[in-house]
Amino acid sequence: MPLGSGIIYGLYKKGIRKDLTAEALPHHVAMIVDGNRRWARQRLLESAAHGHRAGAAKIGEFLTWCDDLDIRVVTLYLLSTDNLIGRAGEELDDLIEIIAQLTDDLSQCRDWRVKHVGNPAGLPERLTTALREAEERTIDHPGLHINLAVGYGGRHEIADAVRSILAAHHSAGGSIEELAELLTPDLIGEHLYTSGQPDPDLVIRTSGEQRVSDFMLWQSAHSELYFVEALYPDLREVDFLRALRDYSKRHRRYGA
């Protein structure tokens, strides 16, 4: 019987769902998509692109799970600024094409809204066009808000936010002394890529790795972290439900 199927599996999922109340669920889930390349290697597939395609196929499924539970915001870490430097040329080309196609597909699903979070500098035109058109196509959609972290790095984001603040302050003719008085965490938050959005309540990483890899460093200051052993293409709904159940039982202390 295929993994994650059958009557017992269905009853188990139903049992976990019964324990989840709307009040206990996160409003914003961030996912570090990891393990696609290892998934391809374990299956002796000829290239990492097979793993990235399997991961892209899982993303639509994962977002449907979130939407059906009325989670309102999901951020997906798909391509980091480090990936743009460290990945081999052919693999990076394949990954960029896969993300571009995924972006277009998601913009035509349900009433979802798609937003690019990241710096477009260094991304090829094919990808920036797909991200821009998806944003424009879905800007008025009221459903699940999907952030696609592409060309993203947490430290770069904070640096971009500070540059944006400095530029705005300079344009207004302000002094350094005045800026020092105005500069607060809230002001920096207003200039992040996710300005106006709630910070993630829960950050999940697949593949068994237990690190954040420069992902949402500012926004995740008080997030709960959860690590899943499954490689991303193998992620099952029950794995996600277990993460939510674990989250619902935690007492969030916000820095204590």
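[next item in queue]
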Amino acid sequence: MPAWLIALIAVAAVGLVAFVWLRARAPSDRANGERRLDTVAAWSPTATRILTSAERQAFSTLERALPGHIILAQVPLARFLKVPTRHSYSEWLRRLGTQCADLVVCDMASEVLAVVNVQPPAGAESERARKRLNRMGRVLKAAGIPMHVWTDTALPSVEAAREMILPKPAAAPAAAAAPSPVADTRVRPSRPTPFDELDRDESLDERIEMREPPPSTWFDEFNSGPTPLAPGENRGGDKRGA
């Protein structure tokens, strides 16, 4: 038999063996069948409540305690926290980004002032829930956002909630004023107001910094590296130090 024919048969045999081996390792159609299910037909959606009874009461308390503020409910941490993307962003999102804060207190510019989580009494929550809450607390503390944990069976009053979220600054001791036998009735020029159109110093106008929230973080605007990254590699897949 010619040598070239023997080589051709050997190559064909190796290809057949490789094909059978790859087919054996590939997921079966039955395993992949769930992935091809229609999103709406397979998981028929129904509306449900966003907040529990205790969370609704806490929401109402915050609304009455903090007029002029924005109260948001069930906000994912990825919606108001930004993190560096030098590591895999999808890994951070898997660990914590999709976790929701029960109630978020913001000023009128939507700047986050505090987070309120409504939890069952100490000892009634599961170990997993306790670890998840502690992890959230560490992240919010690092971001400079206070987190308050309220017990669902003992919610604070409106006055206590206001003092908790927006504590009054300590009053400075009043300096002793020297007695004056004659009251000073001189008229002092007032500072220009925003309604003055002529000779108005615009540097005295109050300006509010309008900061935009972080963009959507549900994988639609971020390119994330593999999860987890291989040791010694950065997000681009290059060796560090190369």
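[queue empty]
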